[in-house]
Automatic annotation (TrEMBL):
Biological source species: Vibrio rumoiensis 1S-45
Major site of localization recorded for this protein: membrane
Membrane topology recorded in Swiss-Prot or TrEMBL: Multi-pass membrane protein
InterPro entries hit by this protein: EmrE-like, Small_drug/metabolite_transptr, Small_multidrug_res
Keyword Transport: yes
Sorted UniProt keywords: Cell membrane, Membrane, Transmembrane, Transmembrane helix, Transport
GO biological process, one term: xenobiotic detoxification by transmembrane export across the plasma membrane
One cellular-component annotation, GO: plasma membrane
GO MF, any single term: transmembrane transporter activity
Protein name in UniProt: Multidrug transporter
Presence of keyword Transmembrane helix: yes
Family of this protein: Belongs to the drug/metabolite transporter (DMT) superfamily. Small multidrug resistance (SMR) (TC 2.A.7.1) family.
């Protein structure tokens, strides 16, 4: 069960780092730039812990899928990015895919 917590920390850290990358304005602003480096460091460390028990394909599918959705939400809320109906439907399919993996797949780590 710890591996899912690790994956959650990895995903949230990656989302924070990616959002900070936008705010760093090409690494010209110090604090967002530091946030990017630290955030990705934390993200990859916790992803590496996850991969001790969860197959890389499953972990990465969940990481990428939830990361895309969360970045879309953060971009909308923080950076004013517009999300149209096709974008929202696509994000819905991504969430559905992650749910299917977690509920039905026997490939995940236990």
């Amino acid at each position: 069960m710890k591996h899912w917590l690790y994956l959650g920390i990895a995903i949230i850290s990656e989302v924070v780092a990616t959002s900070a990358m936008k705010s760093s304005e090409g690494f010209t602003k110090l604090m967002p730039s530091i946030t990017v480096v630290i955030g990705y460091g934390i993200a990859f460390y916790f992803l590496s812990l996850t991969l001790k028990t969860v197959p890389v394909g499953i972990a990465y599918a969940i990481w990428a899928g939830l990361g895309i959705v969360l970045i879309g939400i953060v971009s909308w809320v923080v950076h004013g990015q517009k999300l149209d109906i096709p974008a929202l439907i696509g994000m819905g399919f991504i969430i559905l895919g992650v749910a299917i993996i977690n509920i039905f797949s026997k490939s995940g780590g236990h």
